Amino acid sequence: MPRLSKRLIDAAKPGAKQQFLWDETLKGFGLLILPSGKKSFILQYRTLGGRSRRLTLGPYGALTPTEAKRMASEFIARIRNGEDPMATRHSFRAAPTINDLLDKYWSDHVLVHNAKTTQHTFKHIIKNILRPHLGTMKVTELTRRDIAELHSKLKHIPRQANMTLSVLSKALNLAEVWGWRPELSNPVRLIKRYKEAERDRFLSDQELGRLGATLEEAETIGLPWVITASGKTRKHLPKDEENRRTPVSKPALFVIRLLLHTGARLSEILTLEWSHVDFENRMLALPSRKGDGRKPHPVSDTVMDLIDELAVTKRSNYVIPRDGDATRHVSKEVVESAWRRIRKHAQIEDVRLHDLRHTVGTLASQSGGNAFLISHLLRHRNVTITNRYVNTDLDPIRVLSGVIGQRLLDGLAKRPEPTPSPYQETSNVVQFPRRPPSPS
After folding, report:
1. What is the reported pLDDT for 405?
2. How crowded is the C-beta side of 3, counted as CA atoms within 13 Å?
3. What percent of the chain has pLDDT over 70?
4. How remote is the C-alpha of 423 from its chain's centroid?
C-alpha cells in the first residue's frame, strides 16, 4: 500500500469495477475510483460496537491528499472517543428542515388555534418570506444571524418584518416542544423589532357630520359619479349633474351603519345570522375575543332599530344577504367598494372601514368610559390592545391642563400670614437658680 500522493492519484486509471487505493501511513484512509473515473477520498473504520463503516470525505480535486488525510485523522480521533461520524451524517441528513417545521406548524397549530384572517396573513408570510429564505435550512442549524439578516431585508416593511419574527418565533418554540431543537434555544430571542407607525385615525365631529349627510344622500338619491374623463370623452357625460348619480348598495349601507354603531369587526357583521340576534333582550351574539365563538353582547337601541328594519324583509339565515343570492352574506368587496365612494364624497378619503372601530373606542373614552369597560365594549383580549384603539382627545386634556396650571399660579401668588421668627429676640428672660456655694 503506497502513500497516497497527487502523482499516484493522477496516474490511477479507472477499470470495469470500482477500485481502492489505501494509504500506507494512516490505516483506513484511502481513495475510491469508480468506473466513471470519479475519485473520492474515503475512511474505512469500525465503531466501538464493531460495525464496519465507510465514510466519504470528499472528491479528489475539491480536496487535496493532504487535506483529506488531515480530515481522516480528525475523524479517527473522534471515533476513538466513541463517536460514529457516519451515523451522525445520516442523522443530520434526515433531520427536519425549516420547511418541515412550517408544514407541522401550519397543520398542528395555525389551522387549530388561529382565526381565518390570521391564517390568511400567516400563509402569506410562510409562502413568500420564510420558505424562500430559510426553508431548506435544518431546524437545528438556524442561527440568530440568519434571522437577523432576513429581518434586515424587510426593514422597508416594518410591520410585516415584525410579524415574520413572531411567526418564526412561535414555530421555533413549538420545535422545542416537539424535540426538534434543544430547550431555551430559540434564536429569535434578542432580535429587536422595528418601530411601527401606529394608526390613530378616527372621525371628528365635523367628519361624522359629513359622513351622516353622505349616508343619507346615498340611501335616497344616490351619490355623484367620480368623473375621471377628460378632453373629448368628457362631452359624452350627461349635461344634468343630477343624472350623474347612481345608487349605493343597500346591504353595504346597512353594514357600514352597523360597523359605526357597534364598533364590531367587518367579518363579524358580514357573517351575522338571525340566530345571533336576541330581540327580547336587545343583544347581538359577537365573539368575546377575536377568533372566538360568539356570545351575547348588549347593543344600543340604534343598532336594534337597524336590525328591526332588516327583519321586515328577512329572506335568509344571514342578517344582511347578497342581493342576487340570499344563501350567501354580502361580500367584503361590495362593502369596500361602497365605502370608497362614500368616503370620497364625505371628504374622508384616508379613513378605512376599521377606523370606524377606532372611532367607537375614542367616543367611549371621551364619554368617560375607563379602559376596562372599553376593552369589553370592543371585545379585546387585554387592555394593552384597547390602548391602540382609544385615541386621546386633546380638548379635555387641554382643559385639565389649564385647570392645573391656574391652581399652580394661584398657589405661587398666595402670600402667607407673617409669623414670629424663631430667631427673633423677646423680652422674656428665663432666670435660672444660682448654684449654691461649695462648702469650705
Report:
1. 61
2. 5
3. 79
4. 70
